[in-house]
């Protein structure tokens, strides 16, 4: 819906229409709804379980699990911003989203996305200190330090999301209000603007590169030092043990950066709307589901904690009955 304006060929948009997967047959959309609903529930339950277990189990109180808890909380927020609306467009054909709703969705998408980039870098630094300075690890990564590092990871999302969202939604929009995506991402919304967006696009490109590259360089530096330290360990068993403590994080980092980089840094000529939707699904829907699975299956401490938690729950239930 839009309200015509007197000047120019632009309109005051009051709502947008998310095209989502409307080009697909109804039967396929129903199957996608069931698949995404299952992924959504697994994501919420898996990440919630990680949060509860790392809070309750006394064996999981190290800094690594403090940051893992932050990551799980972030993934829940990321999913809540995008997936419920996407499910509505698939099953109820509720494709409309208000102007404010679209801006809010974009704001929190940027916020959680930027926060995840920096939090993954913080987790890499934590692994660097744990492996390269194990004796000083408890002193360096004390409660105060880990809280400051977590706050520093979350904070950059606020200015980036505020500037980019406010700037983009201050532009005049054309009569066409159809967003060719399943959520309000910047590029498809920007295509609806009836104004010169060159300055904004330069800012967006530079901002995206900085947000991706700064944490990525920090991660590369951390793991370069980690690899050098692991190679100095004389025994194969010691090397394997040291590497196993950071393998889960490496896998999560790879999934996030590969999928997001393919989405935002591909040449426009090779970046059709449909292919971008598929790539966007990988880091907005699939990766948040895989993160708790990766940390649960590849980390013996988490597996043992989950086992203890379930055994306590079953024991309490047996006692009650």
Automatic annotation (TrEMBL):
The chain crosses the membrane at residues 28-55, 67-87, 107-128, 149-169, 202-221, 242-258, 278-297. Gene3D superfamilies: Rhodopsin 7-helix transmembrane proteins. Pfam families: 7tm_4 (PF13853). The keyword Phosphoprotein does not apply. Residues 46-295 form the G-protein coupled receptors family 1 profile domain. Its main location: membrane. It is a multi-pass membrane protein. GO terms for molecular function: G protein-coupled receptor activity; olfactory receptor activity. GO terms for cellular component: plasma membrane. Signal peptide: none annotated. This is Olfactory receptor. It comes from Myodes glareolus (Bank vole).
